[in-house]
Design a protein that fits this description.
alpha/beta; Rossmann fold; N-(1-d-carboxylethyl)-l-norvaline Dehydrogenase, domain 2; eight-stranded mixed β-sheet; 12 helices; 8 strands; globular
């Protein structure tokens, strides 16, 4: 039996925007998925988000009603961590971007998950090598950087930690293919490939707004029409979350230098609770999924 064929059960730790999207694509691919989160409210919101996403796919004839129902049936919500990972073949962590939280989460995963399980961290910038230090066997941790919205975005950035084995990289690549993603493999350097490139464009766009070069809408339109970007950098920042972007920039500033220093405007907006789409306001005002 191949490594891919032997994967039957997936545990997703963290039911936020990224976690529920990861759970959805795994369930659509035929895997049984247990979703864990410490917040009942987050779990309820995630369950509704996945149901809504699948319903829209049915309406667009991208999924049949039977496929929607089968996908929903494969999802178990609000499962305690130890129970979720206890019989999992793959565990994907999608908790907030805090090293202390990820280390604590992986210590718990390591104590409860089977020895054969592939472990993945959905981080956009934190060191996979450092996260792997929480494990007895650091060779099985792989960075799995998904993109938002997960059911739509094709890319999966696979990150090789200093001690990640070739076998586990290959398992992650096979999993990516099974869930409909195209993968790239990068070394464990701060920001990997995508975050370094993505946030440097975003941070410069913020500085342009800050200094009055142009409006957020016109800056975004310039990149969408002039460079064929599907979404402008400030609209993307709203979608990702200003707080998430700030945490990434703080990390990259420490690791890589001044070009990643967060603009004062970004820090002020986060302090004011303007976090983007999830709070209803960021660089744009959002109402019912639309800016």
């Amino acid at each position: 039996m191949s490594e891919l064929a032997s994967i039957g059960r997936v545990a997703v730790i963290g039911a936020g925007t990224m976690g529920n999207g990861i759970a959805q694509v795994c369930a659509q691919a035929g895997y049984t998925v247990a979703v864990c989160d410490v917040s009942e409210a987050v779990v309820a919101k995630a369950k509704a988000a996945v149901a809504g996403s699948l319903e829209r796919m049915v309406a667009k004839a991208k999924l049949t009603g039977e496929q929607r129902d089968a996908t929903l049936a494969r999802l178990a919500w609000g499962v305690p961590l130890e129970a979720a990972v206890g019989d999992a073949d793959v565990v994907i962590e999608a908790v907030p971007e805090r090293m202390d939280l990820k280390l604590d989460t992986f210590r718990r995963i390591d104590a409860a998950a089977p020895a054969h399980a592939l472990l993945g961290s959905n981080t956009s910038s934190l060191s996979i090598t450092e996260i792997a230090s929480a494990l007895r066997d650091p060779t099985r941790l792989v960075g799995m950087h998904f993109f938002n919205p997960v059911p739509v975005m094709e890319l999966l950035e696979i990150v090789r930690g200093l001690r990640t084995s070739d076998a586990h990289i290959e398992r992650a690549q096979a999993l990516a293919k099974r869930i409909g993603k195209t993968s790239i493999v990068v070394r464990d350097v701060a920001g990997f490939a995508t975050s370094r490139l993505g946030v440097i464009l975003g941070v410069e766009a913020m500085r342009m707004v800050e200094s009055g070069v142009a409006s957020a809408e016109d800056i975004d339109r310039a990149m969408e029409l002039g460079y064929r970007h599907p979404m402008g950098p400030l609209k993307l920042t709203d979608l990702v979350g200003l707080d998430v972007r700030l945490a990434i920039l703080d990390h990259l500033h420490r690791e890589l230098g001044e070009q990643f220093r967060p603009p004062a405007l970004l820090r002020q907006m986060v302090r004011a609770g303007k976090l983007g789409k999830k709070s209803g306001e960021g660089f744009y005002v959002w109402t019912d999924e639309k800016k």
